[in-house]
Specification:
248 residues, four-stranded antiparallel sheet, six-stranded mixed sheet, 10 strands, single chain, Rossmann fold, binds magnesium ion, binds adenosine-5'-diphosphate
Length: 248
């Protein structure tokens, strides 16, 4: 579903991704962890071509990405409907209800009828546990509820891949579980996902593989039983050791 080959990305003179190579099979859930500034967000943004890159190639959900694509390139249009992304900040449109946020892209991009888009949106709201909040505006929802609407909005495009960049980091602890539960259900339903997260329980119990990203490269890539329980690199040992010490 995803193949990344020798991906390099610079910001000015600084090399942010230094030759990332990796593959992800359909239905896998990859938990991405690692120290701040290591390049996790940059990698996700390259996968969705929110940022271009300097060298290498990405194949994702049938789209082939290379350096220097124009923003109007048809391959990017296809990419955006096949790859959904959810950020730390929910970025819902404040003047639209939950239903309005979720139906916007299907109605404009896929030219779905209002009735069809709303029926699909209501089903998605039920799936994320918010069947009764279709008419609520973002300011009437908690952070966790807003993030679940954002997930439903991404799913409305019927993506083949979902990318999550620290989806619970802006939330109070008591709201994180509801959001992680939705992501867990997606994993069980076979969605292909990359999830940047500090939730070690998720990485350990749900992910098919864990990537430790450090200084622009994948320092470790393996099943959680290997990477989390028996890390080989100092960065992974340090990272998981620190998480364990700070978790109750
Ligand atoms: N727009 C930018 N301009 C310059 N440097 C950037 C920019 N975005 C990210 N960086 C740098 O790239 C590196 C990787 O950042 P990022 O991908 O956000 O890391 P992570 O998500 O792992 O914390 C950091 O050193 C960061 O300062
Ligand atoms: Mg980041």
């Amino acid at each position: 579903m995803i193949s990344v080959r020798s991906l390099c990305k610079r910001h000015g003179a600084r090399e942010v991704l230094t030759g990332v190579t990796a593959t992800v099979e359909r239905g896998e859930t990859i938990a991405i962890v690692g120290p701040s500034g290591g390049g996790k967000s940059t990698l996700l943004r390259c996968l969705n071509y929110l940022e271009g890159f300097d060298a290498g190639e990405i194949e994702i959900a049938g789209a082939t990405l290379v350096p220097g694509l124009a923003s109007a390139d048809p391959v990017l249009r296809r990419l955006r409907s096949r790859v959904g992304m959810v950020f730390q900040q929910f970025n819902l449109f404040p003047h639209l209800t939950a239903l309005g946020n979720i139906t916007l892209a299907p109605r404009i991009v896929k030219r779905a009828s209002r009735a069809a888009a709303e029926a699909a949106a209501r089903a998605l709201l039920a799936r994320v546990g918010l069947a009764d909040r279709a008419g609520s505006y973002p300011h009437e929802l908690s952070g966790g509820q807003q993030q679940r609407v954002a997930i439903a909005r991404a799913l409305a495009q019927e993506p083949e891949v979902m990318l999550f960049d620290e989806p619970t980091s802006a939330l109070d602890p008591e709201m994180r579980d509801d959001v992680m539960e939705v992501i867990r259900d997606l994993a069980k339903a076979g969605m292909t996902m990359l999830v940047v997260t500090h939730e070690m329980q998720f990485a350990h119990d749900i992910a098919s593989r864990v990537w430790v990203i450090d200084r622009g490269t994948i320092a470790e890539d393996g099943p959680p039983a290997q990477v989390v329980d028996e890390p080989r690199t100092d960065v992974a040992r340090e990272f998981f050791g620190r998480i364990r010490r700070t978790s109750p």
